[in-house]
Amino acid sequence: MINEHSVDLAVIGAGAAGLAAAVAAKQAGVENIIVIDREHSPGGILKQCIHPGFGLYRYEEELTGPEYFQRHAMDVIHQGIKVMSDTMVLDMTAEKELILSNTDGIGILKAKAIILAMGCRERTRDNILIPGTRPAGIFTAGTAQQMMNVRNLMVGKKVVVLGSGDIGLIMARRLVLEGAEVPTVLEIMSFPGGLQRNITQCLDDFDIPLHLSTTIIEIKGKGRISSVVVATIGKDGKPLERTEKEIECDTLLLSVGLIPENELSRGAGVEIDNVTSGPIVDANFMTSIPGIFCCGNALHVHDVVDYVSDEAEETGYAVSRWLRNDVEEFDVDVKAGDGIQYVLPHRIGRSSATLKMRVTEPGRDISIVGRSGEDETFRKNLPRVAPSEMIMIDVGRITGDVLTVEVVR
């Protein structure tokens, strides 16, 4: 049985966000910290990302996922922060009590502050409602990545990828390198869902075709998948008649989006943003429940892990200030206007802040404008934007109570 005990800070999740936040909090003076993770070892998704491309912004060198994580792991060791692995958080209350379960039994952990850093999960076939039979051979891209990169198991010989998210693009390349055939990557949107560098390096460089405005309307197969029927999607979002085409395959990978992991947050009564599926937070990354903070992919899905680490560090520093009762006033509501999917944080102060946002569609030579009442607070001109790439803008003094961010063409 786990004894009931208390800590200054409990961090849920031992990926890049959780470890970076814990280290920053410790460096800022928070002493009694524990990081909790349900997996056998820390690292999160980075452990299976053996491809390079990490650390370019943060460390100014190209690292693999495990190499990037190792930097955070060494920081945790040097700071003497305890990581409790193989431990599931069963429940979290608004009073910042955690119900834990591991091989020692069930116990209660009381914390003065909590950082939610659970990361995100993949959408499945059930989330996107693909009709047809239910054969073997259908995987999420992340599951296939884990099977191939960690367990050394090949998932198939002829693989169709649905969705052009970054993990799907990277796995398309990985499969070809391992000798599989990837006849196509399909994307229901009219533009790619992943970073342009991954489109170039993973598809173009390996002659893997990408078909936009195309999706799967039927899965066929008995025992194991044998083919998929695809169709072109019209402007109304429905398949166009007489565009159906059957593609033979023995495997289907789904790379159809990521969802922040927030069952614990909802259970505790944390207010959730319907667009991001992550908590509503202020400029200190504190949620609607005082003392509960959120960062990384549990807050919103990032395109670059370096930004996850930076955001987590900001959160760790903010927690240390909150524990010292150094409380700031955040009385400006931030709203997403025309052309903006979402903008974070949801509440900021009047002096300055850094906003993070995504646009709704690709564009060239556009301006992102922030308006507070009749005042234009900022204007940033950008040569190119895409929904797959997060945009960060520093904001100066704000006069009104609401700041609306929009795209101006």
Description of the molecule:
By secondary structure, this protein is of the alpha/beta class. The protein folds into 3 domains: 187 residues, FAD/NAD(P)-binding domain (3-Layer(bba) Sandwich), CATH 3.50.50.60; 133 residues, FAD/NAD(P)-binding domain; 76 residues, Sandwich (Immunoglobulin-like), CATH 2.60.40. Helix content is 21%, strand content 36%. It has 8 helices and 27 strands. Strands 1, 2, 5, 6, 7, 8 and 19 form a 7-stranded mixed β-sheet that branches. A 5-stranded parallel β-sheet has the order 10-17-11-12-13. A 5-stranded mixed β-sheet has the order 22-20-27-24-25, with no helix packed on it. A hairpin with a 1-residue loop joins β14 and β15. α1 packs parallel to α8 and α5 runs parallel beside α6. It is globular, with a radius of gyration of 22 Å. It starts with a strand and ends with a strand. The relative contact order is 0.14. The mean pLDDT is 95.
In short:
With 409 residues, this protein is an alpha/beta fold. Helix content is 21%, strand content 36%. It has three domains: 5-121 and 259-328, FAD/NAD(P)-binding domain, CATH 3.50.50; 124-256, 3-Layer(bba) Sandwich (FAD/NAD(P)-binding domain), CATH 3.50.50.60; 333-408, Sandwich (Immunoglobulin-like).
